[in-house]
Write a structure and sequence with these properties.
The complex is a heterodimer of chains A (245) and B (239). With 245 residues, chain A is mainly α. Chain A is 78% helix and 0% strand. Chain A is built from 10 helices and no strands. In chain A, α2 (21-41) packs antiparallel against α3 and α6 (130-152) runs antiparallel to α9 (197-210). In chain B, α5 links the parallel β7 and β8 (184-189). The chains are: A mainly alpha (245), B alpha/beta (239).
Chain lengths: 245, 239
Amino acid sequence: MSPRVVLSTGRRVLLQLRGDPRTLALLLLVPCVLEALIKWVFEGTPEVFQRVGVPLVGIFPLVSMFLVTSIAMLRERTTGTLERLMTMPLAKLDLLAGYGLAFAAMATLQAGLVSFVAVGLLGLEVAGSTPLVVVFAVLNALLGMALGLFLSAFARTEFQAVQFMPAFLLPQILLCGLLVPRDRMARPLELISYLLPMTYAYDALSRVAASSTVSAEVWRDAVILIGATALALGLGAATLRRRTA
Amino acid sequence: MAVNDAAISIRDLVVDRGGHRVLDGVSVEVAAGRITGLLGPSGCGKSTLMRSIVGVQIVASGRVDVLGLPAGAPGLRSDVGYVTQAPSVYLDLTARQNLDYFARVLDAPAQRVAEAIASVDLASSADRPVGSLSGGQRARVSLATALLSRPRLLVLDEPTVGLDPVLRGELWAGFRDLADAGTTLLVSSHVMDEADRCDDIVLMRDGAILAATAREQLLTETGADGVEQAFLRLVGAGS
């Protein structure tokens, strides 16, 4: 691995995002608007906002980075820039780490802003530390990136890549406990939820929201999230081929 | 041609793509420090041969050696420059941002970026997003990228398609300068008149080599006035 290549790749990905101000604005503002929307939709039952507000801060980056990475990697493949990079002295890990660096930076910004809006302006209560919420948001962004990278290998067009969001992330949003506590779901679904990485993202964030002490469960959730990210990155790296048919 | 003069040496190369045999036992050598034109009609396997040489093509069998190493060897990654037919650069970045990035990946000195931009005559549009440039300008950004590392071997897949004749002449003059400085160039084209600017000619048709020789010798042997006529005579002789 080469720090020079990792840093320049991260910088290049951020430059591409900066060159697209509309995407940048959507990435930063949509989560804030949605948090506000949830607060006012549940005006009559404010405990709902208090329950889902914090987990959502962390789940937004997962969804946005999943989408951005799928499309970005698909473009690298279809425009031939990936093939060009693969003929250059660049390790696959350099490319992945560069993307990771750029998206972690974006996720920090995104989660920082939405936390400020939710906690500072909308009155969301966090018993634990708000920076820890941002840390989990960054872990989730990296998980989203890793999943997007891996799944983009199975999309031939941008239409297909976008459809992977409802196909792979929406079920996780339904099953992670955000809508209904998992022990109240049909038993098979509860069991499936333990296999889905977003479940641990939700658990960790709701624990941070509810308690000022960082419990062992929070650490365990963090380890599981990092493990799932590493697994998806490993699978994604295997789809980056120097030689193709 | 002695074996040790060859920058590229290909033996019995077989490549299948999409269930179709694209290269069927190709053997050919490309001499070092010369401009070799790879010519033949569209779809004859030129691009696949070039992909095999730069090591991005899965090959069924055969051997491809480049600068003394197997094609695609990690040791070749700074020594071989490759320009695909479709410009492979980031459309949402400017030409300069593209070149800055690729220069860092290649660990090339920063001043090479300005040199590469100048050598493809792009200085006036270097700070516009590549996506807003014309097809010919995009092709030149892609070509400039391959010049950054001063590679010993340049593999250029139809680099002059869609360029105006003045610029095409300038680029070919640039290729000649590179060859004079010791760079090996393999340039594909389906336009036979570009062959007249090459030292050596490899003629391809239907996944096979029709002829691979010095241009002068090709013309003498076929008694043709130009490479196009030589191609026609060779095809006629073969059928």
